[in-house]
Structures are given as C-alpha cells and as structure tokens.
C-alpha cells in the first residue's frame, strides 16, 4: 500500500492505483475526458497532466536523501498524465502548480478548437463534461483574457480559423445518433465496444486531424449499444429516443431499478411533464456497474404512450370509461357472495415484493388455489443458491446453459469481465476507480475458462472454449450427462453435443478451484435438470447464477406467491379473476366469469375479454423493493409519470377485496411494507451493498413437461416494448429460425413471412435458415412471454392456408 | 466471387507469418493484395477481409484508413505518388506536382478518362538525396524527376511499356553517393 | 590523428563496415556476403558466446540506438526477461520515414544479409527465436531483396532450425508497412504488426515486458542491428575507439539538399558537419543558410562556422540546442523561405499524427499548420509568433508520444535562428522571397 502526498495531503492507496485515482481519493480534483470507469486507461486526452515527483533509491538500496535527511524528490522532467501513471511509495503530486494549470488550460483550448459552439441546442448541454471542464479549467486568466476598447474580455479560445466540419447527424441505429463535429476523440465509445460487450463495431477512421468515429456495422447491433450515450463526455453520441425532448436540468431524475429482467440493474428515469423521456444507467458498482442493456434503456417508449387514465367497464360489449365509484359499485355487485376459492389473483413478472406479499397474503386468506405470477418457471428459482455477481469474477471456470446476453444482459457483461480475468476493483473515497490500471485495450479473453450450451448459438458462443448447440428439449439430457460424468458415471448421449466436449467441460470444472454455473429459463422449466444443478452446487461447490424469466421471481416466490399446485398465471380455473400488471393468456381469461385487469395499457386481449379494467402503474412508477437474481434487496422509487388514479398492485388488490367485503392485507404501500418487514425481516435499512435476503427454501417444483416443438428463445426485449415504432423498426420482424432440414420438411422458404401462433400470441415472423441449429429445431423470440419453453404452434403463410 | 477465393494458398503462406491465434495481424498484407490488384479497397473487400480474419468490417476499415497506401476510391492503372516533403520540395516537388496535374488534367481522387492515371501527393518517401521522387504503384522509386523525365515517364506508360523498360532521359544533375567508398 | 578517439573519416584507423558493400554489384546475394566474411560473427557468437556475453559486448561498445532516440542498445537488451519460458520477439524497425533519412534502405537493398545476421545476433542475445522486420511499405526494392535474401538464408541453413549447430532456432518474417510515419514509434509499430490501428501504446508495460502479441519484445533500428554484426566480429573495443565519450562507433550520415554529392556517408561518430559536407559530400551547389542536422525533427542550425565545426554526435549537438537524430542532414539553401520550410515540415507531422492525443491532433495537425500557413501566405498578424510559441509550450512534452515534440522542435529552431524571416512575413504581409521555379 504505497503512501504518497497529493498537494498537502498524505494518503495511502492500494498497490496499482493510478495517480488520477489517488488525486480524487485525496479529495482533490483533476480534469479528464478519456478515462472512464471500467474502461482501460489510455492517456489520450492529456487533460490530467500533473506534476509528479518520486524519491529514488541509491546503489545501497536506501532512498537518496536531501540535507535534512528526507528522501529527495526527483521531479519527472515532463508533466505526467495522472491516468496512466502508477502511484508509488513516497510519490509527490502537485495538481495546483502554475505549469499544471497552464497545461490543463491549454488542453481545454485544444479540445475546444474544433468543438462546435452549439451547446444551446445540444442534448448534452448542462450535463456535458467538456462544458464543465472548460469552465473549471479552461479560463486561465493569464492566457484567456484580452483587452478590447479598454475592457477586459474573456477569451475561450484563440483559435480563429474555421472549425472542422463533419457529419452532424450520423445515425448509428434507431437509438443512437452521432454528431462527428462534437466528438473530442476520447475513444470511450470505441473502447467500450471492444472491452465491455466484446463487439468491435465502432472505431476511429482515418487518422490525425481527420480522425472520426465510424462503423461498417450500421445499424449498430441492438443489445448493448446505448451505454455509449451515457459515457460520451460530450454530445457526440446521443439517445435518439430522447432527442430534443428536454434540457438536462428540466428532467426529473428518479433513481430506481430496471424490472425488465431479474438482474436488478440500477437506472435513472429521466422524466418531464409526466412522460418518461430517457432511461440512463445508474452506477451500482456491485451489480450493473455503469451499464444497462438496450432494452432497459431504449425500451421505455411504451410506458408513456396510450396510457390508461381511468377505469373502463364493459357495457353492451364495449369498454367505456367510468368513474371509480361506478367501478367500485360494479365490483361490489359482481363479487357479492363470491367464494374465496373461486378467486384468482395473478401478478405481473415485474411486481414488487410488497405487491407479491399482499397478493400472497390475500390468496392465503381466501384459501384459493388460484394465484401466482407471470412467467413463473416450473422449478422455483428461490430453491437455488444465489451468488453475488462479483463472486463470478473470482471463479476460475464458468459453465453456462442458456443465453445470458438475452436473459440477463448485464450478467453477460459480467461474464465478459470474467473472461478478461478482471477481479473486482478496489473502492476509493470517490468510488469506482476512474483509471483502473489493471485494464488494457484488447485484453485477451480467456476462452478456456468458459463453456456455453444453448439450443441455438448465443452471443457468448464465440467467446467460449467449449460451445455447444443441442436441440430444444435436450437440456435435461445435457445436464444429466454432465452430472453423470462429474460423478464418474457413463453418460447417456446428448444429441448435438459430442461426449468428448462434455468430458472437457467436466475436466475443467473439476480442475477449477472455484466454479460458476449459469442457468437460464430453459433449465428452470425442466425441474429435473434444475434440481441436478442445485445438487451439483451443493455436492461439488459451485456458485449458481440462475436467470429466471420473471424479474421479481426470487422475491415473489419467497414471499409466498409460489404455487406448486399449478393454477397460476398460465392455467385456467379461477372464476373470478384479478390480474395486475399484465394480461393473462386467453384461455385463462376465457375460463373466468369475471375478469378484472389492472393495466397501464389496454391490449387487444384485454379489449376483447376484460369486464373491468383499472388503470395501473408501471414499474417505473412504483415504490417498493425487489430481490434480484443474486438475492440482493433493491429499492424502487417512483418516477412522477403515473396518471392520476393509476394503482399499484396493493391498491388494486385492496379495491378488489373491498368489493368482496373483505379487509385487504394492506390498504396502501406503506402498510404493505410494514407487514412485509414484520413477517419476513427484510434488511430494508441496510445499504444495498450488503442487503441480501436469501431465505433457505425447499419449495416443491410444479409438475409438467413441455411437449411442443417451437422453442421460445429468451429475449431482452419485451412484447410491450414493441408498442414503440422505434423499437419495432430497430428489431425488425421476429425471426423464425429453423435448421435448413427442418425448414424443408415444414415447407418454409427462407425470407418468407409466416404467421406463427402460440399460446402466448400471434406473430408475423420471417423465416431464417440457421445450419448452426440442431436438426428439428424451430426457434422464435419469446419477447418476454414463455421464454425457455417449448410450445405447440400453428403456422400460416399470409396468403392463407397452413404452411 | 470473393477476391481471395482462388488465393487460398497465398493466404496460407501469409498466415504462416503470424501466430495462429493472431490472425488479424494479416490484415495489412491482405489489404495490400487487394490494393495492388484492384487499385482500391472497396467495402465488399473490406467485409471479405474481415470475414477471413474473424473480425469486423469496422476494424478493417479503421486499419485501412489509417495508412496512406490503401485507397478507398478507385485509382488509375498507374497511381503516381509524388513526394512533397522538404527535400523533394526544395528540389521542385511542387512544380512536379503542378506539371503532373496540368499534364493529366486530374486532381487527387480522380482518374484520367482513359483509366490510366491517378495522382497523389505523399509524404517523405525516404530518398531525399535523389529528390524529387515519384513512385508508380508499388514499384521502385523514380528519382531526380524533372519535366523531361516526367514526360518520358508518361509517354512510356501511355505506350504500355513496363516501368523498368522506360528510359528516363538525363540524370540527377549532381552526383549521388550511397556507398561508403 | 592517430591518437585517441577516431572522430574523422580521414583517420587512417577508420574503416567502413556498414556500407562497405553497399553499391557493389551482387552485394545482396548470399554468395557475395559469404565471400566477404558474412555470417562469421553469428557463427562465432552462437558457437562461443552466451547470450549474456553478447549483451555485455554490446553494452561495452557503447552502441546507442540509431533510430534517433539514442538509447543504449545493450541496456535495452538487458531489460528482456530471462528463462521466463515465453516466446520472445526481436523486431527490426525498418520503417525509415523521418524526412532527411534514407540510410537503412540501402542496407536492406544492397546488403540484406548484414541485416539478417544482425537479427540472428540480436535474437540470440535476447533469447528471441522469432524476428520480424517491419519495413516501410514504399521500399519495394528493399523488400524484394530482403525476401529473396531470407529465402536464400533459409535454403542454406542460415535461418531456421539449429543455426550453426548451436541448437539455436531463429525464424525471420517480413511485415510491410503501408505509409504511416508513426509506425517508426516502437509501440505503434507493434500495433501495426498486430493488425491494429498504429496508435502508440501505453508504457509501461514496456515492450520488454509485454510487447508484440503480448510477449517480451525488443525493437531496434536497422543500423543499430547491423552495427552489432561488426561489434561482435571486431570487438567492442574496436567500436568504442570511434567517437567521443558517450557517442560511440560509426554512424551513417545522410546529406540531402543542394550538396554536390548528396548521399549516405559512413563516418565515425563525432565527425564535423564541415568534413561531411565539404570533404565527403563535395561541398554545396548554392549558398546555404541553414542545416537540419539529423532528420526533420531536429531543430535547424544556421549554416556558419560554428555549426560546421560542430562534431555530429549526441552530446555536441545537444549543446547547440539540437539533436543527432538519425544523422540526416538537410541543407536549406538561401533561396528557400524558412517559414515555408517549417510549414512543410509541420504539415508532414500533422499528416502523420495518429490522432490519438489532443495536443498532437488539435495542436500540431490542426492549429499549428494553419497558423504557419497563414503567415507564409502573408496573412499573419502581430502576436501570431507569440501565439505559436505559447502553443508550442502547450504541446511540447505533453503529448502521448514524441511525434508532437518532433513537430515542435523544428519550429523552435527556426524561431530561434530565423525569427526575422517570420517577422518580415507578418510585417510585409507576404512571403518576401521571390518564388523561383526550382527547375529553372
């Protein structure tokens, strides 16, 4: 732990700390543009130049000392870039010297040289690092004032030539636009793509003063592209969903959690005048660091369009707006004398713990078998042990069965970090290291540390030492065979995966001191396979990362919404139905005689089948807690965008129970939270870094087995997001992927548009042949519903007739 | 058909120059091959190279555009590169350039209508003692260029003579020493 | 003359080695090379010296890098790890691109086996079994000759497995550049060789720790590596006899501009400009006002007795406020405009800037070029020179790699010795020199 002096302060920092981080750690400031947390330091922008000196050792191995006997400080002949200089014992750093000030001011001037003065129309204005640093470090009086007509005026730059002109509206995708004039060549975006998601889709083109950011992969692949809009220090890369929607200071900024998947990524919801305009990543070092997926970032458009603002009641076959009082009266009439066991209480996948608790308690009180949540898997994810994401970085080997890039995109980024062999960074007083010297450009990926299996090639496949594709439905066989080999038994053959490959995986698994197993929805839908993973983790010791398709699954199961007897979200049975947050499948609605849906948006199924629709909040607007995939308790805070009267699940449930003449378990959020805490002793007062809730559960798995032939592939994108034309344009029509032989057998022509109908909906899909799939495989994106399942389907070509 | 389809043997020899796990190190020889044979590197070739190397077209273009030798737009059969850095400038490179432009009627990035010539000003070619220097395509330098030698060069090329057979009149007008004797 | 250091080409003890065969017919063939003692140094070293002994010998010789920076070669080699079990690489930097420099090309064209033998020795010393020669793309003839020589050497056992029966294997590859001066910077060169954009890399890690393909690597200039052949063959004492205290050995000096015999001259380190220009290059063809002593990045000096009597080595040129650089002397005639000359050079550096760091991309390639062009075109304003000097302060020593400094130094030199020319441009609002066609 080297001790060093920053100006007047003595500090001690971990070995390998950059001078830049040492400066911040000491409480001083230094400007920088190219450095960024989690990216390799490159020393390109030269803003962080400081004066650095260090003692030297003489031939006798002792410090060379001055007359006073102190180690003599030898100043480096040049100013040093703090971001790429390692802090060493006895170092002395001067960030306040005149020469430092001048160098920094000079560098600001160079940065401004070709930067347009369009801040008044720039979306980054007010949140721009270049603006801030220009004010803080650019105006060095000696160099930046001039006298005109006896008046001293401020001079921002002495550059009097025409600025460089370049493409100002270069669309990189439906979501991201590039303004090449504003670019200051910090290279954050280029490094981001190579270092974080591992896709080299942006690079500098040309060189010298002509250098610009360009791509031959346009549109940029949707998945992880949006993070570059967060880290761009200027307004060169902007979020198109938020373009010109507001100045930065006009946004209401709400810190909350993304509930599109179970990772629990921290986000900012930027809203204005009751609309969500932008989602940004919020730093949470232990979970998503500073990254989120494109779905989490750009998939918010649905929440602000066509919102339900008042109750709708079916009258003469049509849903018409009514007052809340009329809705209440309707419910009271239809629920009078209702039996508790007739009631079905269903909750959406993104519900909070409090909502889950209220629903579970109500179901218990009503003694109804009909309750559950959307996308509950057959095997309860809460049965599996949970590990912290950071623990993954300590593992030596990871076995992945599933598609992390789609199921939990942020876990995919963590796996990329794992491949680079990076362990969790130290924390400084200022937080995450800004210039982590352990990171380098083009770090080799340790492919031998990773094995990936999925029913189709995933983004992770090309990074894995062993990568396999098995036919959908064989996941049980795969896990079984691996399990057998690990236990020294003869494995049954797994279609598509040679035994030798499995043996290699087992060998590496056993050779590793710490191992991780990552499993997705498909495994959780196959109880025997999931149980095998649980047993394996216990017997051999492995970190388990399970990726349930329902964001709140772990918490909802633990608060009592696990329903092993079936009759949950998927199965018809309840006569009197309350569903909150999403519309259950058609067959479930069809079987009920009263269908009350609390929704933020009216969808076709609700329009056709609901008796009463109540306006509901989206997860962006809720207050509450959730438990993420690692068992961490995270707090949701409400963005001020919900229409007046929009209910959360607790309110909707109370509304329903009052109609039944019963007392609700909680009348409102605060009450639900108190009860929940009383009952489960959640660590709600702990900071999120250490707030875990991992009750040891042995819940019974739900029986049943998938019989269909169409595999619903997990996707980071949700069906509701497709309401936004921008999302639809970016994603294009869903792809129905088929092995060429399968396609031939089914008479599917590549490129043809077909209509696919499953129990989860109907899609116009485009046929795509994929020889990497197993023979017989047919894969359709799930868009969030039934991910990881094999379902029955019907195919129709648009002209009519069965395909 | 891909450019490299019938050059698999050649590719294999190139890849032998680099460790097998660093295939993308071969990007420069591949780009050079395309430039030599097609006079420029088109986006299709960029994609083809990316595929061969297992990287992205963006990366290949990033590398390609970094160097002055690879051209993004088509060049003439004879791409004349005129060194314009100090020693050549002192020896008349600007006059050489102006003469060439006037003679051919093209500017940088253009090709003469007959498809024969394109011109480019380049930085120091490393033959300062025989300035001014011109390089045609990827061939050895033409030294001590002046109006007469330039005219003879263009005539020879127009007549379809191979470069090494074109005789340039006169000499440097001064001695050139490179040997240590 | 016969006492003490050899600092003149006239010294009878001086004998040419590096360029002894350049210009001779067939000197590039293996037979010629073998006929003139070729590969004897390598044979001797591999048979009777340990790698560390080779490094020691080079250290003792006082050889310093001939690419321009002048770092002691033996010391650089000693940074390489020993017995670390990793692949090591030796790279010959033949990306000779500094304006005014053209010495390495003829070694590769006319004496490629000398370069190959040097690579074997260097590879042996630093325990590298693989070597790359990064040759600038435009050097077509040198490339052809080099490739042919390597093939010949392989065919006759001078490259490949078990050289001279010593058990030492050495493979040599050639990689062609494609027109980027920055590839002369060793880390940019490694990036270029790896198929990346040729931006300089961060140091540390230094190439000796983590270089080409992540492996320990040493990069040396062609002349440096060729010199090693003769140090091993003739001993470090022979080498150290030439030149003053810290600048040892023979050096390839180059003369361009209006000399009677411009070209490359192998002379002892410390030879004066006067001897080079008048005795060897035959004098000047027209009045000269300045000379650039060692390639375009070195600050120019006025062409006067003081300059002419300066010994050309690292220390003496530093005393004059300039540098030895690559030893490429460019004569600037009276008729040339210094502002135009400097604008040309700064344009060169601007064109060759990789664009990675701000002061170089914006300061050199953007602003400085524009300001100098403005002055040359007669649109300079009072205060422009002070502005330029302030920008030089903001650039020098602040860029990522030395390329920006290389652009700053010539401007500094010109302003130091020829400020009046800049001032006249601004005062008169035009370039005061009549532009005469150089072709008459």
Overview in brief:
With 181 residues, chain B is mostly helical. Helices cover 38% and strands 8% of the residues of chain B.
Descriptive notes:
The complex is a heterotrimer of chains A (803), B (181) and C (440). With 803 residues, chain A is an alpha/beta fold. Chain A has five domains: 94 residues, Ubiquitin-like (UB roll), CATH 3.10.20; 126 residues, Alpha-Beta Plaits (2-Layer Sandwich), CATH 3.30.70.20; 193 residues, Rossmann fold; 145 residues, 3-Layer(aba) Sandwich (Dimethylsulfoxide Reductase, domain 2); 87 residues, Barwin-like endoglucanases (Beta Barrel), CATH 2.40.40.20. Chain A is 25% helix and 20% strand. In chain A, the strands form nine sheets. In chain A, strands 18-17-28-27-26-19-20 form a seven-stranded mixed beta sheet. Chain A has a seven-stranded mixed beta sheet with strand order 36-31-35-32-34-33-37. In chain A, strands 1, 2, 3, 4, 5 and 6 form a six-stranded mixed beta sheet that branches. Chain B has 181 residues and is mostly helical. Helices cover 38% and strands 8% of the residues of chain B. Chain B has a three-stranded mixed beta sheet, with helices on one face. Chain B folds into two domains: 57 residues, NADH-quinone oxidoreductase subunit E (Arc Repressor Mutant, subunit A, Orthogonal Bundle), CATH 1.10.10.1590; 88 residues, 3-Layer(aba) Sandwich (Glutaredoxin). Chain B contains seven helices and three strands; from the N terminus they run H-H-H-H-E-H-H-E-E-H. Chain C is an alpha/beta fold. In chain C, helix 2 crosses helix 9. In chain C, the strands form two sheets. In chain C, strands 3-4-2-1-5 form a five-stranded mixed beta sheet. A five-stranded mixed beta sheet of chain C has the order 7-6-10-8-9, with helices on both faces. Chain C starts with 29 loop residues before the first helix and ends in a 12-residue tail after the last helix. Chain C folds into three domains: 211 residues, NADH-ubiquinone oxidoreductase 51kDa subunit (Rossmann fold); 84 residues, Ubiquitin-like (UB roll); 91 residues, Up-down Bundle (de novo design (two linked rop proteins)), CATH 1.20.1440.230. Chain C is built from 17 helices and ten strands. At the B-C interface, helix 2 and helix 5 of B face strand 4, strand 6, strand 7, strand 10 and helix 14 of C.
């Amino acid at each position: 732990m080297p001790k060093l002096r920053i100006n007047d302060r003595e500090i001690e920092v971990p070995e390998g700390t950059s001078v830049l981080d040492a400066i911040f750690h000491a409480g001083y400031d230094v400007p920088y543009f190219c450095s960024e947390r989690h990216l390799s330091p490159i020393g390109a922008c030269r803003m962080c130049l400081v004066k650095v000196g260090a003692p030297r050792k003489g031939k006798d191995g002792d410090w060379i000392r001055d007359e006073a006997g102190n180690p003599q400080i030898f100043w480096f002949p040049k100013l040093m870039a703090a971001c790429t200089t390692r802090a060493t014992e006895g170092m002395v750093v001067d960030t306040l010297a005149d020469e430092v000030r001048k160098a920094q001011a000079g560098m600001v001037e160079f940065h401004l040289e070709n930067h347009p003065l369009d801040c008044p129309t720039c979306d980054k204005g007010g949140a721009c690092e270049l603006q801030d640093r220009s004010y803080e470090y650019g105006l060095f009086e000696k160099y930046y004032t001039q006298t005109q007509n006896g008046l001293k005026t401020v001079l921002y730059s002495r550059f009097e030539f025409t600025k460089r002109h370049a493409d100002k509206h270069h669309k990189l995708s439906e979501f991201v636009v590039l303004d090449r004039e504003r670019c200051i060549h910090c290279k954050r975006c280029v490094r981001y793509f190579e270092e974080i998601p591992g896709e080299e889709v942006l690079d500098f083109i040309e060189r010298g003063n002509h250098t610009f950011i360009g791509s031959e992969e346009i549109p940029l692949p949707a998945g992880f592209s949006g993070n570059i809009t967060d880290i761009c220090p200027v307004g060169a890369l902007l979020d198109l969903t938020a373009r010109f929607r507001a100045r930065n200071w006009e946004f209401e900024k709400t810190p909350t959690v993304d509930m599109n998947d179970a990772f629990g990524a921290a986000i900012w919801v930027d809203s204005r005048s009751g609309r969500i305009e932008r989602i940004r990543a919020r730093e949470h070092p232990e979970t998503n660091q500073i990254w989120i997926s494109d779905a989490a970032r750009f998939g918010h458009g649905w929440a602000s369009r066509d919102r339900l603002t008042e109750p709708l009641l079916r009258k003469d076959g049509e849903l018409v707006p009514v007052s809340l009082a009329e809705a209440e009266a309707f419910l009271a009439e239809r629920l009078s004398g209702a039996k508790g066991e007739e009631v079905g209480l269903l909750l959406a996948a993104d519900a909070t713990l409090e909502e889950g608790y209220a629903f579970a308690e109500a179901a218990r009180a009503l003694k109804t078998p009909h309750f559950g949540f959307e996308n509950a898997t057959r095997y309860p994810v809460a049965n599996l042990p949970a590990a912290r994401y950071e623990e993954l970085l300590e593992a030596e080997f990871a076995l992945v069965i599933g598609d992390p890039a789609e199921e939990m995109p942020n876990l995919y980024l963590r796996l990329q970090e794992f491949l680079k062999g990076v362990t969790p960074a130290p924390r400084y007083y200022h937080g995450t290291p800004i210039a982590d010297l352990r990171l380098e450009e083009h770090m080799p990926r340790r492919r031998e540390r990773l094995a990936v299996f999925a029913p189709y090639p995933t983004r992770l496949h090309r990074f894995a030492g062993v990568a396999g594709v098995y036919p959908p439905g064989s996941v049980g066989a795969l896990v079984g065979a691996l399990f057998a080999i690990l236990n020294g038994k003869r494995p049954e053959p797994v279609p598509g995966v040679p035994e030798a490959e499995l043996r290699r995986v087992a060998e590496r698994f056993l050779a590793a001191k710490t191992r991780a197993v990552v499993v997705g929805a498909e495994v959780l839908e196959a109880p025997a396979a999931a149980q095998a993973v649980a047993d394996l983790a216990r017997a051999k010791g492995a970190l388990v990362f399970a990726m349930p398709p329902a964001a709140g699954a772990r918490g909802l199961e633990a608060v009592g919404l696990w329903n092993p007897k079936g009759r949950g979200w998927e199965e018809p049975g309840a006569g009197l139905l309350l569903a909150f947050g999403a519309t259950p499948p058609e067959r479930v609605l069809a079987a009920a005689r009263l269908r009350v849906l609390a929704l933020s948006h009216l969808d076709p199924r609700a329009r056709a089948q609901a008796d009463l629709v109540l306006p509901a909040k989206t997860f962006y607007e809720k207050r509450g807690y959730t438990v993420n995939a690692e068992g961490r308790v995270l707090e949701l805070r409400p963005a001020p965008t919900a229409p007046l009267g929009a209910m959360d699940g607790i309110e909707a449930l109370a509304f329903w129970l009052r109609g039944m003449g019963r007392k609700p378990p909680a009348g409102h959020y605060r009450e639900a939270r108190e009860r929940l805490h009383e009952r489960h002793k959640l660590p709600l007062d702990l900071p999120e870094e250490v707030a875990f809730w991992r009750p040891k559960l042995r819940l019974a798995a739900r029986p049943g087995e998938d019989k269909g032939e169409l595999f619903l592939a997990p996707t980071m994108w949700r069906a509701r997001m497709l309401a936004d034309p921008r999302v639809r344009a970016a994603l294009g029509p869903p792809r129905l992927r088929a092995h060429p032989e399968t396609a031939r057998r089914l008479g599917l022509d590549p490129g043809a548009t077909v209509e696919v109908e499953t129990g989860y909906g109907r899609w116009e899909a485009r046929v795509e042949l994929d020889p990497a799939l197993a023979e017989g495989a047919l894969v359709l994106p799930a868009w969030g519903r039934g991910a990881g399942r094999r379902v029955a389907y019907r195919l129709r070509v648009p002209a009519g007739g069965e395909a | 058909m891909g450019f490299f389809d019938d050059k698999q043997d050649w590719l294999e020899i190139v890849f032998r120059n680099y460790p097998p796990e660093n295939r993308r190190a071969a990007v420069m020889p591949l780009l050079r091959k395309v430039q030599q044979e097609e006079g420029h590197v088109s986006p299709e070739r960029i994609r083809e190279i990316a595929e061969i190397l297992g990287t992205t077209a963006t990366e290949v273009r990033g590398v390609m555009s970094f160097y002055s030798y690879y051209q993004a737009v088509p060049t003439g059969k004879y791409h004349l590169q005129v060194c314009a850095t100090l020693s050549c400038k002192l020896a008349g490179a600007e006059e050489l350039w102006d003469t060439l432009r006037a003679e051919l009627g093209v500017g940088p990035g253009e090709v003469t209508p007959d498809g024969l010539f394109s011109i480019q000003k380049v930085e120091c070619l490393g033959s300062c003692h025989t300035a001014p220097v011109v390089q045609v395509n990827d061939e050895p330098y033409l030294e001590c260029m002046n109006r007469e030698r330039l005219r003879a060069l263009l005539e020879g090329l127009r007549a379809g003579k191979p470069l090494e057979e074109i005789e340039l009149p006169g000499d440097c007008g001064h001695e050139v020493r490179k040997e240590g004797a | 003359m016969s006492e003490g250091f050899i600092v003149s080409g006239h010294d009878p003890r001086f004998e040419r080695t590096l360029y002894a065969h350049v210009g001779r017919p067939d000197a590039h063939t293996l037979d010629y090379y073998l006929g003139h003692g070729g590969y004897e140094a390598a044979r001797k070293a591999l048979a009777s010296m340990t790698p560390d002994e080779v490094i020691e010998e080079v250290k003792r010789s006082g050889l310093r890098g001939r690419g321009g920076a002048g770092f002691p070669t033996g010391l650089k080699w000693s940074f390489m790890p020993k017995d670390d079990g990793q692949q090591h690489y030796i790279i010959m930097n033949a990306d000779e691109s500094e304006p005014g420099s053209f010495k390495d090309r003829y070694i590769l064209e006319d004496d490629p086996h000398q370069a190959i033998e040097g690579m074997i020795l260097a590879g042996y010393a630093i325990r590298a079994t693989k070597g790359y020669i990064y040759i600038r793309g435009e050097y077509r003839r040198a490339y052809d000759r080099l490739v042919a020589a390597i093939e010949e050497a392989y065919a006759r056992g001078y490259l490949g497995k078990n050289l001279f029966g010593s058990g030492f294997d050495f493979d040599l590859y050639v990689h062609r550049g494609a027109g980027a001066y920055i590839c002369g910077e060793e880390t940019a060169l490694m990036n270029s060789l790896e198929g990346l954009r040729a931006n300089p890399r961060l140091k540390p890690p230094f190439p000796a720790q983590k270089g080409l393909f992540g492996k320990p690597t040493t990069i040396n200039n062609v002349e440096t590596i060729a010199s090693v052949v003769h140090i091993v063959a003739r001993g470090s004492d022979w080498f150290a006899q030439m030149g003053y205290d810290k600048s040892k050995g023979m050096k390839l000096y180059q003369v361009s501009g209006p000399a009677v015999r411009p070209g490359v001259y192998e002379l002892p380190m410390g030879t004066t400009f006067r001897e080079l220009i008048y005795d060897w290059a035959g004098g000047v063809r027209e009045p000269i006002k300045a000379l650039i002593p060692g390639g375009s990045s070195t600050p120019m000096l006025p062409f006067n007795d003081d300059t002419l009597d300066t010994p050309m080595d690292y220390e003496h040129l530093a005393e004059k406020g300039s540098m030895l650089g690559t030893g490429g002397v460019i004569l600037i005639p009276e008729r040339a405009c210094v502002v135009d000359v400097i604008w040309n050079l700064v344009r060169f550096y601007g064109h060759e800037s990789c664009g990675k760091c701000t002061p170089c991309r914006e300061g050199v390639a953007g602003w400085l070029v524009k300001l100098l062009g403005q002055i040359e075109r007669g649109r300079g304003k009072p205060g422009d020179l002070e502005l330029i000097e302030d920008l030089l302060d903001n650039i020098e020593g602040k860029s990522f790699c030395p390329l920006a400094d290389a652009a700053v130094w010539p401007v500094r030199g010109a302003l130091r010795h020829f400020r009046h020319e800049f001032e006249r441009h601004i005062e008169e609002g035009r370039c005061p020199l009549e532009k005469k066609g150089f072709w008459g």
